[in-house]
């Protein structure tokens, strides 16, 4: 029985900051951002597009009435949660008017959370083949103005429907995973911005990838002549490039060049959206599928997921017949093209805006007229959506 990603889509706010403008404002050579970390733009979210609204906007585009009725599990993976108790998935369930006959939970493990959700969804469908699962990765990456991580911010959500006989990617049963407690990245409950030890985080990322790749190779899971693409979690595209670079001396030249060329296609969306934490790997998958015209039915794809703190996993999937019919590249290209470019002042003003925390009422206007869902107000410490 094949189980995997039946549908996939993403949402990102309709405004961005060009990193050349940020570089000039911070008195940095733009190539440090464009080449040094490999990013071009970063999406910026208004207060009304929190992770619940973005998750609902991403999921809305792929859910048919039949899909909604078939759902038995809804998972929202995020490290930008809106409540310490109530799962973001319950807000999403309400906003999307989903059936009540399902499990709705939130998963947190830094950027790895969506992969945990995807694997949990796969196991659920294995036990309940007549059901489907909705997995949404939704995040707003914040590090602070003038901070070292400012250039690796972003905002967006990726939604996936998991089912039997998937139309896009059938997931293989075997995967290799690893967990260890590290202090490379964290965000305490009292902070709206993350803390990171950037260089150390890169070292942990690369070491865990190396360990997992070696273990997978010993189990003959990484036969590269059969591997048509290898995707990485990309908080910034240079990070994934560094991971792939570690394999250059281990692979045949033709195999390495094939993976490198496909990697370039996988980072196109991420370079314009920025870091979306849990959704970054899956935005890479969508970017690859919609920007590489040479992929064929049956092609095998590897996906390396990493979440600071730290958990990592390498898993695989195979492209399904007619997968291209279930993609909308022109829609996504237009979505990115039509966004408003912010000035630095506009970006900083948006960044400084905050939701009330004292129980008073704060009403919000809709920042994206094309998005069906948004946060309308905070009242008595509760969030209300439309």
From TrEMBL:
Q: Which UniProt keywords apply?
A: Acyltransferase, Transferase
Q: Name one GO molecular function term.
A: hydroxymethylglutaryl-CoA synthase activity
Presence of the UniProt keyword Acyltransferase in the record? yes
**Catalytic class of the enzyme:** transferase
Q: Which InterPro entries match?
A: HMG_CoA_synt_C_dom, HMG_CoA_synth_N, HMG_CoA_synthase_prok, Thiolase-like
> Which positions fall inside the Hydroxymethylglutaryl-coenzyme A synthase N-terminal domain?
2-163
Q: Work out whether the entry's keyword set contains Transferase.
A: yes
Gene3D superfamilies, sorted: 3.40.47.10
What Pfam families does the record point to? HMG_CoA_synt_C, HMG_CoA_synt_N
Domain Hydroxymethylglutaryl-coenzyme A synthase C-terminal as annotated: residue spans? 245-384
Q: What is its EC number?
A: 2.3.3.10
Q: Which residues form a coiled coil?
A: none
Source taxon at top rank: Bacteria
What the entry lists under NCBIfam families is as follows: HMG-CoA-S_prok
Q: Which PANTHER family match?
A: 3-HYDROXY-3-METHYLGLUTARYL COENZYME A SYNTHASE, HYDROXYMETHYLGLUTARYL-COA SYNTHASE
Q: Which family does it belong to?
A: Belongs to the thiolase-like superfamily. HMG-CoA synthase family.
Please identify the protein, giving its name as recorded: Hydroxymethylglutaryl-CoA synthase
Source organism of the structure:
Bombilactobacillus thymidiniphilus
